[in-house]
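Issue 218. Parser rejects a valid record. Input:
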Amino acid sequence: METAATKPWWQMTRTPAAGFWLGGFWLLFAAIRWWSLEPGGWVGPATVALFALLGAGYLASAAADLRRRRATGTG
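Output the parser choked on:
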C-alpha cells in the first residue's frame, strides 16, 4: 500500500504563517531568557541556545515553504 507524502520532511508546520509565528515566539522566548540569565552555570545558556535553534528552525521551515508555494503557484 502506497501513501502520498502530505508534506516534505523539513516542513515543521502546515502553513508558513504558523511557522513565522512559532519561530518568532521561540526567538522572543530565547531573548527574554538571555536577558534574565544569572551568572554562572551552563543550564541557562544551553536553554537560550535550544530556544534560539527552535526559533531558527521554524523560521527557516516557514521561509522554505513560502518559497516552495510561490514557485509552484499554490500559495
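Fixed in the parser; the record now loads. The chain has one domain: 16-70.
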